[in-house]
UniProtKB/TrEMBL annotation:
Gene: sufB
Domain SUF system FeS cluster assembly SufBD N-terminal: 132-202
Protein name: Fe-S cluster assembly protein SufB
Lineage: Bacteria, Bacillati, Bacillota, Clostridia, Lachnospirales
Pfam family, one: SUFBD_core
InterPro entries: Fe-S_cluster_assembly_SufBD (IPR055346), SUF_FeS_clus_asmbl_SufB (IPR010231), SUF_FeS_clus_asmbl_SufBD_core (IPR000825), SUF_FeS_clus_asmbl_SufBD_sf (IPR037284), SufBD_N (IPR045595)
Domain SUF system FeS cluster assembly SufBD core: 205-439
Family of this protein: Belongs to the iron-sulfur cluster assembly SufBD family.
Taxonomy, superkingdom: Bacteria
Amino acid sequence: MEKKKTQIEEFERNIYDIYDSDSIDYQVKKGLTEDIVTEISESKNDPEWMLGLRKNSLKIYNEMELPKWGPSLHELDMDNIVTYVRPKASMTDDWRELPDDIRNTFERLGIPEAEWKSLSGVGAQYDSEVVYHSMREQLLEQGVIYTDMETALREYEDIVKEYFMKLLPATEHKFMALHGAVWSGGSFVYVPEGVKVNMPLQSYFRLNAPGAGQFEHTLIICEKNSSLHFIEGCSAPRHNTINLHAGGVELYIKEGATLRYSTIENWSKNMLNLNTKRALVEKDGKIEWVSGTFGSHITMLYPMSILKGENAKSEFTGVSFASSNQYLDTGSKVVHAAPNTSSTISSKSISKNGGNTTYRSAVTIMPQAKNSKCSVICESLMMDDLSRSDTIPVMDVRNDKADIGHEAKIGRISEKSIYYLMTRGLSEEEAKALIVRGFVEPVTKELPLEYAVEMNRLIGLELEGSIG
């Protein structure tokens, strides 16, 4: 019998692709100039030092070149990017006060429902500004601060000034410099010493405007022996022009503190996603990264942990899914800078219909990091012979008393497994979906139930299609 080839067609992104055409109150001109940077700063009433940081970042941006490795960014033309878009909404703590179109967007995405069921607080950003922010009274009484970055800059300027872009200096790379020049929105979290936040906080970032960039900044400080789970979600409708996301995430985990930072990114396939995330972990502290990367045209994302204190720990668990016209270059970086530190990296990727995934990592064991341990596992699953997957791990070990392991697996989906499942009554599409869900199960099990369901739904959308 002639064997028919499976064709998995592009899916309709349904709720994610609904575009609000009348939501813009004000925007700067396209392009990137000192006048535009100053205009953004003045609109926010930045203190003088922040304006200086923005202008210096712009200077560095103009002096730096595009990265010479990874996916080509030739489609990015900053002369056609609008770096600041203010929506027709003022920040509120009542969903009912938002304009109908913006409120409906967040309701379709399930954000108010998630807040009601399982979150301690929610921040929701629309284009360049946070439009909704709320936190449970109990956390206020414990001294937890959770607010948008602009409010933090006004009300907690000394704390912001001490930490802002210290982990992510503009000199880090060209898009960190761009971020420093035009950042807007984002979240600020401060957890006092000894406070355990039992239910997660969530920030959701929605980029609606065509041809715009989103540059939110997230700054989290977990003081000694505190703990927090922070969830970040992102989405955008699809346009016929390039959109840009270059956010920045700085995480400070003090002695004995624990932070879990979970992300589900679901950008549209016209998005260049060039996000940067970094955590500094002190003695006996722990950072846990859980990352799901879906959508986008190009993603370059490598969350980094700097294990500064003795016994500090880092765990990274991530999955990415690339289809046609997508190049997802993801991974993780760890620097062991103290004795007895440990890290694990577990990365999975799936590619179909010519999608391109690359796992890229860098692990550095410094000379003083005696008795450190690191385990790296990366697995790639290709759904067809059109797709591509590469693995580029780098290990830089500078002492001889470290325990380092690396394992990599790249393979195609097993026809034998599909056939077996079809003999048990499953269709070919159901069999593939079951195999893929089993493949990513180590990631989904790390998420709260509602978000595991969301990730499984995104996987289902990616796999949705016809069998012919």
